[in-house]
Amino acid sequence: MITKYTAAWLLAIVIGLMVCLGSCSSKKSDDDDDTSKVKAQTPVTVTTVDQNAMADYIDLNATSVFLQKNFVKSNAIGYVVKVNAQQGQYVSEGEELFEIKTKEAQSIGSSITVLDTTFKFSGVNKIKASRHGYISQVNHQLGDYVQDGEALATISDRSSFVFLMQLPYELRQYVRQNESIQLTLPGGQKLDGTVASFMPSVDTVAQTQAVVIKVNSDQQIPENLVAKARIIKSQKSNTISLPKDALLANETQTEFWVMKLINDTTAIKVPVTEGIESGDRIEILSPKFSAQDRIIVTGNYGLPDTAKVKIIKP
Known about the structure:
By secondary structure, this protein is of the alpha+beta class. The protein has helices at 4-40, 103-108, 111-115; strands at residues 42-47, 50-66, 69-73, 78-83, 90-91, 96-102, 124-128, 133-138, 145-146, 151-157, 161-168, 180-184, 190-202, 208-215, 226-243, 248-249, 256-261, 266-271, 273-278, 281-286, 295-298, 307-311.
């Protein structure tokens, strides 16, 4: 038989168990909320705006060439008896390159000298370089029989050395006569060039026009070397920019925005108007960010407005 004291004791136990279970459930719920809050924080890195000069440019290929090539020619019919020319050799104007002994002199030999010792006859003609430059081709060697006017060698005229840049015709407005253009050779060496002239024709397929760029350099640059020519489309002396990775856009590339921190854990969406691009940076026309504004540069993709974030060191 259950007495009133026993019933009271049982009731107290039941109430204690209910309180304990409620407390555990509440603690577990709180723990779940805390875990949820931690998981909601996206790790990000931040940057600030730069304010400096920027230029919108395009790099085009420019190939080194000798526009003028001179032929060293024989001035008689005969035999090559001396050769001072080698391919790749630099020669000066007036330098002796070949000697040609005429066919008649080769046939007569020293017969005339035997008949008259006072008569000096060699029948040897000296062929000299007509221009400064590099010998790009040697056509004849010692002992060859040559005709009058036949090419013995080819000299690439040093004064005609230029770079030919293939310019898409739609970019013609950005290149002007006597304009300075910077060339970058393979390996990173930079040369200052000047637009000398424009070729009078356009490539039928590529629709590009060859632009002649002259360079001031004593360096021996080989023919057919491909350099990069930088064409400046527009430039600004002092403007605000951000890394391209900080800029987000919709699928149609009609709306742009960045994620800006308003405190250490919250980022908001800020629409922006972009300007010129230069390398890995892009100009921000509006709004006017200050040097203290923190902009998310990594971890920003897909973040909603007022997103919870956690700043990590890059």
